[in-house]
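Readers of this paper often ask what the protein records in our data store actually look like. An entry from our holdings is shown next, in its original layout:
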Amino acid sequence: MKLRTFLCLPIIAMSLFSFSQSLPVIIQNGTTKLAAGDNQGAELDFANAIRLNDAVTNTYLDKLKKYGSFNEYQKSVSDMPDGFVYNHDYAIPYYKHGMALEALGKQEEALLDFDKAITIDPKYADALCERGIVLISKEQEEKGCIDLRKAKKLGSAKANDLYEKNACSRMSVLFITSGNTKLDDKDYAGALSDYTYAIQLNSDSIEPFIKRAQCNLLLKNYDKAINDYNKAIKINLDTVQILFLRGLVYNASSNYKLAFADFSHVLRLSPNYYEAYMQRATACEGMENYKSAAYDYGQAIRVKPKDGLAYYKRGMANQDAKDNSACKDFKIAASLGNEDAKSLAENCGTPPPKK
């Protein structure tokens, strides 16, 4: 027998022995070796487990991909009407193989395994935690911290500890600051990206949701802005500021009924909020309810008696409502320095049509 053939026999025998064992036994053996620090042995066991279950896992992933491409009707009539059921067991060999590779210093290969484990089970806290650790070690701190935060929220004590120690909780503020700078420079795409990172790093804070909503408003992405304000409101139900800002988006998107509801809620919480009266009046005008608009402008005047704009606006609303008191409001507005009201006050008998 040749020497090369003789040396190959133990390797072939080991391979045949591995495949003669059941999958649970291979995984258990690998787990025992991993705990004992036998990372090379563990890597071999989990590699065999992955090969042994490869066909089943690929069928599962194909089904997952197909389900993800379905529309709502297709999902309802598929053989999974209650949604795709993730199988955590398929993810375990990849996660533990990644752990062995990471311990052997093979980070790039470990990342691929952690990615696969998370694809199979998106709520695999341990895999998210370990992927986050590797990403941070590779100076991809923002992505790593996002993984740690997800793992933390899924109950990983290790991720919770590392998230705080790696100062990930402060990174959200840095992204908000960066987003604000980009917003000032009118780099809206860059600002949106930074605010999104801030949300991913700290989704318990209302500030990044508010900032991203304001950016979306400037881009006229009204639905996205509303969605962000809705999420912020879930965090803090009675925040006057968020209700007011959401009302502004409803007005901007001509959804006057919902704008009226938001500003009414604001005024119940803060009865002397001048801008809320002005904006609710705008919503009333949008609904062609000019008498109600005039009332709100009157309330704004109550809060700020020397505000020429409110008098001018009330005059316009009264004019649209065919109310003869419009002329008086135009004169007061003009006396308070409102330029738009001056020509109307001078020709008060026959005011020009509203532009």
